[in-house]
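User: Okay, second chain of the day. Same drill as before: sequence in, structure tokens out.
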Amino acid sequence: MEVYIKQDPEEPSIKRPEYEGDAGYDLFARENPKVSGEPIGKNQTLQATYKSIDYIEYDTKLIIAPTDDTSFYSMVYPRSSVSKYNLALANSVGIVDSGFRDTVKVRFRYIMQPNDLVLKNGKIQGMKINIKKIYQKGDKIAQLIWCMHNHPFLNFSDTVPPSQRALGGFGSTGR
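Assistant: Same drill. Structure tokens below.
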């Protein structure tokens, strides 16, 4: 597989895996984080007080283009370092389709903590983002994993063949 990479040569947006057996290619935030939410007042910055926060978005400024755009796609996963921050990848896993040609963006949910609350006379007025608990411009923010398409033949039917497991669902195999 060959992939064309468009990025700023002075500020790379993607890094090859550190060790030979590593699967993920680190992605870097190449712009300051942008908050999508409802600020109190007109100031929609990281320092604002918010009624609600939908997500925080990071632009990697990375454009990827597999030479075979029918066989390969990529998936965006959180890095293990996300556990040190008040962030969770907004869509659990991001899919970058083969033909997508815009910059790869990564969105996180902000996990509000009690000390993020803004109180006035004992009443909650809103919340602030703890800047020390989110990724910043230049940080490694996610991992990109390359995958091959697998498009099985779909046999639409009113019945399905039986299996050994059958209907065993949540917790059916025990602890």
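The chain is about 0% helix and 40% strand.

User: Thanks, on to the next one.
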